[in-house]
Write the structure tokens for this entry.
Amino acid sequence: MPADHRSRVVYLVRHGEVENPDHLVYADLPGFGLSSVGRRQAEDLARHLADRPVCSIVTSPLQRAVETARPLATRLRLEPVVEPDLTEWLLARRWAGVRWEALPERFPGELEAYLEHPAELPFAPESLARLADRVVTAIDRHIEGTAGPVVFVSHQDPVQAARLRLTGRPLEHLHDDKPAHGTVIRLESGSEGGWVETERWDPDQGATFPPTAR
């Protein structure tokens, strides 16, 4: 993390719901934009963050993330920065284009392994630890020298991996309390370093605050 330990705020955002009627693993395949629900979620999160002193919006290059970032960028008159290192976990490329329901037959044991011990997947082209390193390194790079909060729009597993790594929790907890579509997670670093989750906001549930942040 940066040597400068001034208090910082970042918002980790999972993109909105995707138009995916065939229930495919879309990974980083092109052509998967937001559904009507996802567009509503993007507008809702834009309203939620519109009065925050956001100085930058950084987004994954994938269509669903860019479309999620756009309403907030329009409200704040900011140009989103596209960051390739916020893209989807490369594990998903192995399954790309396959229906979720067909994974057990096409890749026996792999979905079960992902669900049961995601930090130990020898078949994955990118480990969970490398994913966490990739996203956290990108976050570090984009907050360096900034004067205010930065919003990062990414995908469920990358957001969750970064959330766990930054708050010092084991990556084995990947599937605990994962962010839903359109979720915003606020993290704040203290004067002595380290990050604390201070707010979680979901489009359909509003804001929740950890006990330590009340």
About this structure: DSSP finds seven helices and seven strands in the chain. The helical segments are 36-49, 63-76, 91-95, 103-106, 110-116, 128-143, 156-166.
